[in-house]
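wait is this the right file?? whatever heres the structure
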């Protein structure tokens, strides 16, 4: 094993921009994006729209703002958005749609593989849409891959069912695809084939794709115009934003295919964890770059186990229900995965 060094597995948000990104940022052609005159931002937006098979795209400061601006663009005040009760939108985004948009969240039970059951969704549809007592659904949100369900990917067959359900009830679909490129690579299909099932989709540039800042929203031209207005209202208008959009272009051009390496490392980590006495982990559920496990050794709580690992330079964290999450990314190689497993075995010995 190598000398003590930090192995960062808490999140793929800890990725750092590559040297090529830093050079692109330094050389970026800049303008005022609030005036629509930053050509580098325009290139990024055109690239994103093209890759996801949508009419238009908009560069956003964060995934949280991207989701919020999208929800507000879809939903009138006094309506409701159907969201999974384990989704990032529902748990981690500060109830923004209620606070800023007057929109109610209706949480739907999330299945172990990230799906929202169609029967549960049906129960959220008022039997009489003319009854003024009920908030009407203005949007159905999916998360794909699903973070708190272990990076699970929604099958295309399920997305087809959701599309039929949404069409029947005339409800648009928004996909929180923060890690949608991981799903695309894992499934071996173009990302547009997944995005086709949703009217709108947001994805992050700053997770596995390694850009320092930013997310994208894609959709129709009319929809993106609404998101543009909401972005301004929410304080997300940026001036010479090409300096960060340049890194996003490198992300889309150079960082997508290598995500397969992260998936292999996640599977390697999960298989190693499953062999350690005192740890419960199911490698069969690992589909992308997220691994969940539990500490079953009675000598440890998740808190004490995480603290012991931290002292050894291995950084993981709890993410709901006492489960520990580890996320692989470009900053962690296969040797470091083996080192992390060594420290975990040593801690539980």
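ok assuming it is, sequence goes like this
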């Amino acid at each position: 094993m190598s000398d003590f060094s930090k192995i960062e597995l808490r999140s793929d948000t800890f990725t750092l921009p590559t040297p090529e990104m830093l050079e692109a940022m330094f050389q970026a052609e800049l303008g005022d994006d609030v005036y629509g005159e930053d050509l580098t931002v325009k290139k990024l937006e055109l690239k994103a729209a093209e890759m996801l098979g949508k009419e238009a795209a908009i560069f956003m400061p964060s995934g949280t703002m991207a989701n919020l601006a999208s929800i507000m663009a879809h939903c009138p005040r006094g309506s409701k958005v159907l969201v999974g009760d384990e989704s990032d939108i529902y748990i981690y985004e500060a109830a923004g749609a209620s606070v800023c948009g007057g929109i109610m969240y209706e949480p739907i039970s999330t299945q172990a593989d990230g799906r929202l059951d169609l029967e549960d969704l049906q129960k959220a549809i008022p039997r009489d849409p003319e009854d003024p007592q009920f908030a009407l659904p203005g949007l159905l949100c999916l998360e794909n891959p699903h973070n708190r369900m272990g990076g699970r990917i929604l099958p295309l067959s399920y997305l087809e069912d959701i599309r039929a359900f949404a069409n029947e009830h005339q409800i648009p679909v928004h996909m929180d695809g923060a890690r949608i490129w991981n799903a695309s690579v894992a499934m071996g299909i173009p990302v547009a084939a997944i995005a086709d099932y949703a009217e709108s989709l947001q994805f992050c540039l700053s997770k596995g794709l390694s850009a320092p800042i930013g997310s994208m929203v894609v959709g129709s031209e009319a929809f993106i115009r609404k998101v543009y207005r909401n972005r301004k209202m929410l304080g997300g208008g940026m001036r010479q934003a090409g300096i960060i959009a340049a890194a996003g272009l490198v992300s889309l051009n150079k960082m997508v295919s290598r995500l397969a390496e992260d998936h292999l490392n996640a599977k390697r980590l999960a298989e190693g964890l499953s062999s350690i006495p005192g740890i419960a982990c199911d490698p069969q559920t690992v589909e992308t770059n997220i691994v969940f496990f539990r500490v079953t050794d009675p000598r440890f709580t998740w808190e004490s186990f995480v603290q012991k690992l931290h002292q050894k330079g291995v950084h993981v964290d709890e993410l709901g229900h006492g489960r520990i999450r580890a996320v692989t990314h470009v900053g962690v190689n296969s040797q470091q995965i083996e080192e992390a497993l060594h420290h975990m075995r040593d801690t539980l010995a």
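The domain at 19-254 is CATH 3.40.640.10 (Aspartate Aminotransferase; domain 2). so i think its the right one actually
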